[in-house]
Amino acid sequence: MKVVVLGGGIAGVFTAYFLRERGFDVVGVGGELTYPLTSLVLTTSMPHVEDVELARESLEIYRRFTHLREVTSVDILPRWVDLSPLSRVPHDVVDRVEGLRLDPDEIAVITTDYLVPVRRVVRTLRKMLGFSEDYGLLKVEGGRAYVVANGRKIEGDVVILAAGYRNSLIARDAGLEVPLAPYECYAVLSLVSWRARRYSIGDYVLGWYGRPAAPPFYIAGDGCGRYGEGPPPNYADRMRNLMSKRLGVAVPLYVKTGYCEVGPHGGPLYGKYPGLENLYVIGGFNGYGSMVGPALARRLADLVAGGGADDVFRLEKMPLQRRFNPCEVAERHDWGGVLLRNS
Predict the structure, then answer these.
(1) Nearest Cα residue to 182 out of 98, 258, 117
(2) Which residues are registered as beta bridge partners of 226?
(3) Cα–Cα separations (whole angstroms), residue 24 to 20, 139, 157, 250, 303
(4) CA-CA distance, 66 to 13, in Å (whole number)?
């Protein structure tokens, strides 16, 4: 059976990898590789058990391909937060963290995060699986989907749309609707103290996150913007103020715009597209593809192969026509969504 995968990021290459393992003939249309040179973070500190399990599974998948660097994770939360989803994750709850400032009504949850060289892993899989660097279009004819890339029509028994933040744009061009929306995400490359560079920080009280980059740099960000707008005015100053409240001195150097995608439930989705014989979709990782992408790709491969789980991430459970503002959706994968829903 032939499968055409449109999209060469984490979701696309891992879906192709697991389908190839199951004996499928896979053709990948990947486009340009756009992941940053710096490693991305994988955390198991998340407020939903399903996401924790996906992250733990993804961690084991990555270990097939690369060495992962461990880093201390610090999630800053109000004391009232229910931490029961972490029952299977080794963690400590503390009142003080060296190099960070916490208020008396706050706690820090200490776990282990992992820095994943995603660009290297994805590049390795694209080469292994023979992904092209062509950009593809999705087309629908006679109730079946196919891909056009570099002027060539590519048909398959199965077509998988796995194009990251471009999923909804590609689908719309083909006359389809998917319950996904793209948005801009921003980050600042900064200089901070050597103590702070030891930590992967999720500050869910002040509303920002930070990750160590190559010494002496640190990467921090805080949210969402409308697709195509660019970072808000004085974004670097805003991030400096947020970081300084926890870390002391922080010196922003460079603002970077990235592109993300989310579903209406604040997390990823995958499944068979209703009404078409051969189209499947995976996306909506909300910037967390490095954490749960490989495991969700394996579930999609299971579904294509005739199995699959009936879980909360299935596309078939969501209305296709739903339009929404991605910047008003509570993120499923981090504790900020929990605080928002309970505030």
Answers:
(1) 258
(2) 183
(3) 5, 22, 10, 50, 13
(4) 15
Pairing of strands 144-149, 152-154: antiparallel
Cα distances (angstroms) measured from residue 55 to each of 49, 109, 117, 165 = 10, 17, 16, 21
Question: Is residue 83 a contact partner of residue 46, using CB atoms and an 8 Å limit?
Answer: no
* C-alpha distance from residue 197 to each of 17, 80, 87, 201, 288 (Å): 34, 28, 27, 10, 21
CA 275 – CA 162 distance, rounded (Å): 18
Q: Specify the pairing of strand 269-272 against strand 251-262.
A: unpaired
For residue 301, what are its two tokens?
A: 């491969």
Hey, what amino acid is at 191?
L
Q: Give the burial class of 43: count Cβ atoms within 10 A of its Cβ; 0-12 exposed, 13-18 middle, 19 or more buried.
A: buried
Looking at residue 9, the DSSP 8-state letter turns out to be: S
pTM of the model: 0.95
> What is the sign of the dihedral through the CA atoms of 264, 14, 49 and 85?
negative
d(CA 79, CA 54): 26
Q: 118 is written with which tokens? A: 């995603």
- Summarised one tens digit per residue, pLDDT across range 272-318 is 999 999 999 999 998 889 999 999 999 999 999 999 889 999 999 98
Classify residue 314 by its DSSP letter. B
